[in-house]
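During the reporting period the student researcher (J.K.) took over the structure-prediction task from the postdoctoral fellow and processed the backlog of single-chain submissions. One of the processed entries is reproduced below for the supervisory committee.
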Amino acid sequence: MAKYELITIDELGAETVQFHEERAGVTLAALLSDVVAARANIPENDSSKNPVSLSCNDPTVTAEGPLKKREDTRAWMMLQILSEFRGTNAEGERRFSISAGYNKVGVTAATVSHWRKTYPLFGGICDSVQAEMVDTLREEVYRRAVVGHSEPLVHQGLRTGDHVKKFSDTLLQFTLMGYDAKFRKQDISMNHSGSVDTNVNIEGIRDRLADRLKAKAKSEQEADDDN
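J.K. obtained the following structure tokens:
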């Protein structure tokens, strides 16, 4: 579908729709219901009951013609955006890129922001995916700062076949600053290159961060169990 080309859901292939529904975690029908319900936000006017008018504000009216195409197209665009936002790339990695979605369908970030406020289901799913993204980032921070990541050992430009475990001490320090108010008050100086002064007990910091992240995860799990 070309950018901004209006379509009806009947024109879409069932397999294509199913592919995006599975990636997005929501059905096209549910998003369309969200769009139709939002008609109620339109002020009363002479075309309030007109099934072809874009000014129709009655969610019980069965859309026809231009109104149906506009609503079907919008729901389809939102499904594709969520598919890109929540889905994985060819390597099976989650991109968490909402910009990839709105660029694909040909709308702007401002439009997506407006849709998030106008359509509760779409906005709620976007919020949920962002929360998943934060959790993923938290796990990656923990892995790089506390668990460490393996890198191939290179000698004279050639890989030796061995690996060495590396830690990001700078990431560790700044992450702990976000979890520990007492640590934020400490004097963390920056040298002229912009890196953090490492005159601190890195291993002690790593242990403290691990304890705080585990405690936070346990607290969140207990809250979920209560709900």
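The committee noted the following: Strands lie at 149-155, 158-166.
J.K. will present the remaining backlog at the next meeting.
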